[in-house]
Each structure stands twice: as C-alpha cells, then as structure tokens.
Amino acid sequence: MTSAHAEPLPASTAWYVPLARAIPALALAAVITFSADHSARLGLVTLASFTLVAGAVIMTASVLSPHRGVARNLTITQGGVTLATAIAAFVATSGGQAYFVFLLTAFAAITGFIELYLGLRSRGRDALSRDWVFAGALTALLALVVLLVPPGFSQQFTGPDGIDRELTASVVVVGLLGAYWAILGVYLVIAALSLKWSRTDRDAVTVAVQEKEE
After folding, report:
1. Which end of the chain is less congested by CB atoms within 10 angstroms, N or C?
2. Which positions ≥6 away from 14 have C-beta within 8 Å?
3. Which residues pair with 154 in a beta bridge?
4. Distance (Å, rounded) from C-alpha 46 to C-alpha 179?
5. What is the pTM of this model?
6. Residues 63-121: pLDDT tens digits?
7. Cβ contacts of residue 211 below 8 Å, gap of 6+?
8. Is the distance from CB of 114 to CB of 77 less than 8 angstroms?
9. Distances (CA, A) of 45 to 11, 126, 207
C-alpha cells in the first residue's frame, strides 16, 4: 500500500499504528455482521468503542512522534475529534437514530477530510501518504452516503425463511458502518504489513551497503 520507490520513503509513524487501528475496525465489523440488532443504540455503542480505541492510538502516536509541524498538528486534531466522538457516543447511547446519524456524519466528515488532506499534503514525502488518502476518502465517503439515507426509510420484505421483516434507516446506516469498518480494517492490515516489509527491505539494503563499504 505504501508507495513503490527504489528507496522506500520514510514513514512518520510506526507500522503497528495502522495495525492498531485495524483491529477494532475488524472486530466491530464482525459484531455488526453477526448481530441481529441493527438499532441506533448498537450503532452508538460500536461507534463509541471504535473511536475510543482509534482516538487513543492516533493521539498517542502523534504526541510521541519526534516529527513536528503541520502534519503532527493535524493528526493530533484528528485524534482529539475521534476521542470527543467516543465521549459523545458513550454518554448518549440511547440518543436515537437522529443523534446517531448526526454524530457519525460529523465524525466521518471532519476526520475524513483531515486525513485526506494530510495524505495529499504528504505525497512524495511520507510512506503513509497513500494510506492516509484512502482512509480519509473512505471515511468522508461514509459521511456522504449516510446523509443520503432517508431518515424515515422503511421497507417491508419477506426473508428466505418466510418471516416478514422490516428494513429501516437504522438497519441501513448500521450496516454501512459495519461495511466501512470491514473495508478500512482489511486495508489498514495490508498497509501495516506493507510498511513493515518496506522498512525491513530498507534496513537490509543499508546493512549491505555498510558491509560493502567496509
């Protein structure tokens, strides 16, 4: 996932940072997939869980990073917004569909555009730029798609087992959130391993050059 160069670009964060973001995303995607409950309450609980872990990871990595400048400030802002979303979701897990949609779209729009801008700004200078662009664009797209779901959407249908069911806006939005986490999680795992292997290759080249010079 990281850019292919004769000599790998330096990365501003360690390879395990995207992996740490991927783990809760994949876990919560599985929870939503195998849960019969697709209510706004489940959406808020899972959103709170994801943003708490992801926000802590992003904030810790950015604060401890030796790099300084606009990129670090943007990442700290992203982490702060993510943690604020976790708090807002935890304190109002019974807030209902309207609150869930508002909180999810606000979080996705703000953090998505921050990460997208960070990736575009870092192109050619940071090994993580392509991954930031993808994650940011995907997150911003989530906000847009969720906003397109009609608030009062409801459709009756008969399942394969012959039982009548109802497809509601809550079911659609929670399902979209689960799909988003599944895609993001898989991508971040690949990105983390790609970054790890590129660093291993770079270290091997450095050692070979040093041995040759000696």
Report:
1. C
2. 61
3. 168
4. 13
5. 0.84
6. 887 777 788 889 999 999 999 999 999 999 999 999 999 999 999 999 999 999 999 98
7. none
8. yes
9. 33, 34, 48
